[in-house]
Structures are given as structure tokens and as C-alpha cells.
Amino acid sequence: MAKDMTLLWGSGSPPCWRIMIMLEEKQLQGYNQKLLSFEKMDHKSKEVMDMNPRGQFPAFKIGKHVLNESYAACLFLENQYKSQGTKLIPDSVDAQALMYQRMFEGSALAEKIPAILLYNYRVPEEERHDAALQRYKDALTAEVKLWEGYLKKTDCCLAGKEFTLADVLVFPYIAMLFRCGLCSERYPAVAKYYNSLKDRASIKATWPPTWLTTPGRDILKTI
């Protein structure tokens, strides 16, 4: 099964990481994979563009099916391999409703974290405006406060006690927050969630290799 899957990915990309966590949880190790470089612009290479014409990581194929959107890929994998590995959609209607709500709310983190990071990394210092940076910070602060409130009410995972699709899809962005300096003391519930899952087998096995060899940033320490 896994031999029919191909993943072209970049280290540190949450969408790529989501798919890799999912494949581990569904016991689909042994898939074809190739680690490519953002710095070398490999995401614009013909190899990637042939599979993902948007020129982005991930580029993911299962047999004849191309699923480059990480939400689509993870939902497809859960449906195709529901009896294999970890069951990631709970039976409880209440837990299911909460899982779907949180997993799609994760798109707000996926929008607001890169917004502030890209502004700092790509906009030349002399062209940055304090007011614009503050707007990005305020938006992300409000977002993280929401997740702090949510996580104060749960039993370790986003939809309760069980590790679900919501955790597969949201955890990589929570990890990115701490990689970029989020203050654990200011957000203890978010920190507890992060620390409770970072050593989970599927997450540890797929931890971005560049994160293991390079220091994080403190760009979010004032969030």
C-alpha cells in the first residue's frame, strides 16, 4: 500500500508534517519520499510542478490520486485506511463535532502565524512599518488566546482524551509557535498540550529535520 504513495516535502512545512504524521498513525511507513529544499526553490522545480502545479510543498500522490492539500490528504487517508492504525475520527457524536470544529479552525493559525513570520523574513527591514507588524501581532495574540481557552477545557487532546484528526492537523502549527518563541508561562494550556504530544511516536518520528539541527527564533516571544 505505502509503496504506491509518493511525498515530495520540505522540512518545517506544517502541511507536509501533517501528512507525515497521518501516514505514521495509519502505519503506512515505507512510502516513497523525497526531502527537497525551500532555499534552492525546489518547490518550483519541474518534479514538483508536475504533481503540484501550484508550486508548493507538499506534492503527494496515492496511486493515481493526487492530494496536495493536507486536509484533503489526511481525510482521504483516514477514510481509506479507517481500520488500520490509529482510529482518528471518534465514535462519540460530541467528540466528532468538536474534532471537526477544531480541525477547520486550525486554518486560522495556518493564516496568522505565516503572516507575521513572512513579514519579518521577506520584507526588508527598512520597508517594515511598526503599525503593520503590530496588527499582525495583535491578530495572532487574539488567536492564541482562543486556543488557550479551548485547551483549558480539554483532557489533553483537542477533542477530548483521544488523539484525532484535529490534533494531526493543528499540532504542527502549535509546534511552530513554540519553535518561534511563544512564551509557555503566558499560555500554559497551549504549552501543556504541546509538551504532552511532542514525544508521541508519530510526531517524534516525523519531527522536521532542520528543527533538530538549527536553533529556533524568538520572533513570537512578545505575542
Description:
With 223 residues, this protein is of the alpha+beta class. It folds into two domains: 2-80, Glutaredoxin, CATH 3.40.30; 93-213, Glutathione S-transferase Yfyf (Class Pi), Chain A, domain 2 (Up-down Bundle), CATH 1.20.1050. Helix content is 52%, strand content 8%. Strands 2-1-3-4 form a four-stranded mixed beta sheet. The longest helix has 30 residues, at 93-122. The protein is globular.
Keywords:
four-stranded mixed β-sheet; 9 helices; 2 domains; globular; Glutathione S-transferase Yfyf (Class Pi), Chain A, domain 2; 223 residues; alpha+beta; single chain; 8% strand; Glutaredoxin
- Percent strand equals 5-15%
- CATH top-level class of the largest domain: Mainly Alpha
CATH names the topology of the largest domain as: Glutathione S-transferase Yfyf (Class Pi), Chain A, domain 2
Number of domains: 2
- The arrangement of helices and strands along the chain is EHEHEEHHHHHHH
Give the overall pLDDT as a whole number: 92
User: Largest beta sheet, briefly?
Assistant: 4 strands, mixed
Computed Rg:
18 Å
Based on the coordinates given, report the CATH architecture of the largest domain: Up-down Bundle
Q: Please provide the count of β strands.
A: 4
Q: Span between N and C termini?
A: 43 Å
- Unreliable spans are none
Q: Rough shape? A: globular
Order the strands across the largest sheet as they lie in space: 2-1-3-4
* Helix count from the secondary structure assignment: 9
- Estimate percent helicity: 40-55%
The structure class reads alpha+beta
